[in-house]
Structure formats: structure tokens, C-alpha cells
């Protein structure tokens, strides 16, 4: 019998690749979404609704739940702070409580925005003190706390700026393609050359998440770290990213 996994946010940039990685590894995968859900392929589930979450877990009986769903758009975070807290913190807490009650491993996708990126501070260790620079980072840090405090079978996976197959607007890296194609009709485009970034491909993150799920369901979780971080080793600025044909837009971690 194949192992079962639920992937929330399965219609998103990362979620789509996570579904694919687990499926190709022989897992039975159930994806969930909300506004872009297309049953029966992607189930429509309100992650803030305790009854819907409980029914999902009882119907599927997964051994792992990968929680990719989150509000990360700066505009939507600013315009709907209550809705952002509801998804990034409250829904994460609910999932932790519900999965813990059923002995299900919960993998919570977090972000390097839990750190402020002060000059000279990076690279950060997983146990480094967090200091989010913005509201989005604050909600993801609080989401980390919510899952770790409410489940002894929860693990946090922090990832950096992501890019991958999909619509360009889904990633701040992919949007550079539109910029260098100059769809705005400008003769000159300003691009910063000071902020160091580590763009990471969603296929690589999905592969690692699949490996983490296998490890944490076959080993005593109390002997394993509860907070993990994964990133490409390739660093660049926006200018390098857009200028070089060998930039991170085309690279994947070996």
C-alpha cells in the first residue's frame, strides 16, 4: 500500500511541484486549494474550518501533510491583515492540532523572511533568533510557533525566494523575465545590484520535502531537528539575475 500525503496550497507555485514530486515517488497524493481548487483533482477545503479539516484528514488518513498554503503577496498582506493572520497563523495552528491528534506528520513551509537580513548577519543558522522585517515575516514566524507548540510531530521548513514553472507573476524572480522583455516599453530599466538573494527552484524544494517526509516518518522524530532550512547555494543580485543567461532563472541545485 502506498503512503498518503495531503498538500495544501496545491495550486500554487510550490504546491504544484510538491504534488508532482510525491506522486512520482509513488505516494498517494491529495491536493487542496480554495479559490483555484478544481475537484476532484484538487479538493476545495477551507483550512480555517475545523469540521472541513477534520473530515479531510479522516477521509484521506494521510501519514504526512505538507502545508504550502499561505498569503505572501505584499499587497494582499497589507490590504487584508486579518485574512493574512487567519491563513498564515490560525489555520496553521488548527492543522497542527488536528494532525497531532491523529499522529500525522505536519511539514510547515516557512520563509527566510523570519530574519531581518541585517548586513553581515547571514547566513543564519536554523536556531538563530528571528526578527522579521515585515508583516508577512511576522505572520510566518508566528505560524512556526503555532505549529511547533501544538504538535510534537510538526517540522518547519524555511525556504528563500522561489522560482519555477508557472505564470511569471507567481514569483518575484520570474517577474524579472517580464522586466527584461521590457513589456512596459521603457528604454531603460533600473535594477538593484546590492541586495544578495538566493533564488531556489521549486522542483528542488519539492524533492527535499519528499525526502524529509520519508525520513521523519521512518525515524523517531524526537531525535531529529524540528526546524530545517533549504536554499540554493547560488547567490546573485537582481541585476545579475536579469543580465546573465547563466543566472538563477535557468539554474537548479544539483
Notable characteristics:
254 residues; alpha/beta; Rossmann fold; two-stranded parallel sheet; 9 strands; globular; dTDP_dehydrorham_reduct; RmlD-like substrate binding domain-containing protein; RmlD-like-bd
Alpha-carbon Rg, integer: 18 Å
Question: Which strand order do you get reading across the main beta sheet?
Answer: 3-2-1-4-5-6-9
Q: Which segments are poorly predicted (pLDDT under 50) over 5 or more consecutive residues?
A: 242-254
CATH fold node name: Rossmann fold
Can you give me a brief rundown of this structure?
One of its GO terms (biological process) is S-adenosylmethionine biosynthetic process. The chain is of the alpha/beta class and about 250 residues long.
Draw up the topology in text.
Layout: E1 4-8, H1 13-24, E2 28-33, E3 42-44, H2 50-60, E4 64-67, H3 74-79, H4 81-101, E5 105-111, H5 135-150, E6 154-159, E7 162-163, H6 175-181, E8 200-201, H7 202-216, E9 227-229, H8 238-243
Parallel strand pairs: 1-2, 1-4, 2-3, 4-5, 5-6, 6-9, 7-8
Helix pairs in contact: 1-7, 2-4, 4-5
Mind explaining what this structure looks like?
The structure is a single chain. With 254 residues, the chain is of the alpha/beta class. It has a single domain, classed as Rossmann fold. It has eight helices and nine strands. The strands form two sheets. Strands 3-2-1-4-5-6-9 form a seven-stranded parallel beta sheet, with helices on both faces. It has a two-stranded parallel ribbon with strand order 7-8. Helix 1 crosses helix 7, helix 2 crosses helix 4 (81-101) and helix 4 (81-101) runs parallel beside helix 5 (135-150).
